[in-house]
Amino acid sequence: MASVGRTLFVAMGGFWTLIGILTGVLTGRGIGPAFLFVSEPADAALFGEAPGQILLSNQALTTFRYVALRALAGLLVAAGLLTMGLAWFGLREARIWPLVALTVVGVAVLPYWWISLAPYRAAGIRLGLGDIPPFMWLPALLMPLASVLSWVAQIRS
Amino acid sequence: MMQATSRILFLIAGGLWLLIGVLTPVMSDTAFGKQTLFGSPSTDTALYGGRPEVLLATNHQLATLRHVILRAIAGLLVAAGLLTATMAWFGLADPRPWALGLLTIVGLVVLPYWWIAFGLYRQGGVRLALLDLPPFMWVPGILMPVASILGWMARL
After folding, report:
1. Per the CB < 8 Å rule, is A63 touching B48?
2. CA distance B19 to chain A (A)
3. Tens of pLDDT along B1-56?
4. How far apart are CA B105 and CA A82, in angstroms?
């Protein structure tokens, strides 16, 4: 159980890192212009136009998105590397603080994802799991699971 | 001495990320928070061609996207801040090479992202001073490499 928990934490850290790297590369090309932050249909419903159209017509928004998504990408890489490294090295040692830190982080980000997506809820837009950015929903599911598995293993040992 | 200084600098950097992550949702929609979009009031005005508070009042799509993305950034600041501060406090207490190595890598790897994030300001001919950048970028951008050098020197 301990190794499954550890593997899940490492995978989630790696996932954040990967998304951070890809965000820096793909935001301006490929599928990047198809959405503003969540999925194309949800963004179109909230912002009133197709994301691709908005990115052509609203220069201020396009500029802000460019700047903010690259900052977000840098923080994804930072948080991802720290999560991955702490899980890989820290959880191998018989100390409690790495597991406490990873557990707190997995839970602490959840209210932020909730308030981040509040404008969609306020507009009555139903967000499915596939609408929410994967860097939010996947670790939101797997990090608490990793925490539970790791704590159970910790208590048993 | 060098090791303790290194640890304190990493703690400050992590604590700052955490603090800004906590304050961002509270402050970003206040009159003070609306003075900037991402940089400083003067550089944002130069880049966007209008004062941020005016743009946010008139461009609702921009205001909405800013609300969404800044809160996501705040969550990641809290995550990165908590992990950095924890690793500095516990991992560097009886120094582990992996903790110092990890903090060193993180302190360096974010720098190209801050550079490309502000690429449009440079392309637009907007001169950026250190204080025009968000503190969550420039303070750890300076402190973490210094902390890394001190930490590795103490190990040698």
Report:
1. yes
2. 13
3. 888 999 999 999 999 999 999 999 999 999 999 999 999 999 999 999 999 999 99
4. 9
